[in-house]
Design a protein that fits this description.
There is one protein chain. The protein has 107 residues and is of the alpha+beta class. Helix 1 packs across helix 3. The chain is globular. The chain starts with a helix and ends with a helix.
Amino acid sequence: MTPEVKQRIEQLINDHKILIFMKGSKLMPQCGFSNNVVQILNSLGAPYGTVDILEDPEIRQGIKEYSNWPTIPQIYINGEFIGGSDIAIELYQSGELQQMVEVALAS
């Protein structure tokens, strides 16, 4: 990953309290896993940003290296990598995701 791509990723993460790197957009997810994450965050009523990795091959590869996580979607809350779809589902079911979102939005 080039320093420029790393800087772009860091800027995107810093610009949003909650950000999903995903396939598609929140209005039109392009895979089931991305859709799961969008549905979870929508149910919490939290504002969040998305980055469509299908539109940017450098970000698509770079985010996997940046997080050291091989799959998409990837969720960041308050600049911290949380995980992907399976982890989001687990955190949501346990109530932890809602707490993380509330803390992020309050900060």
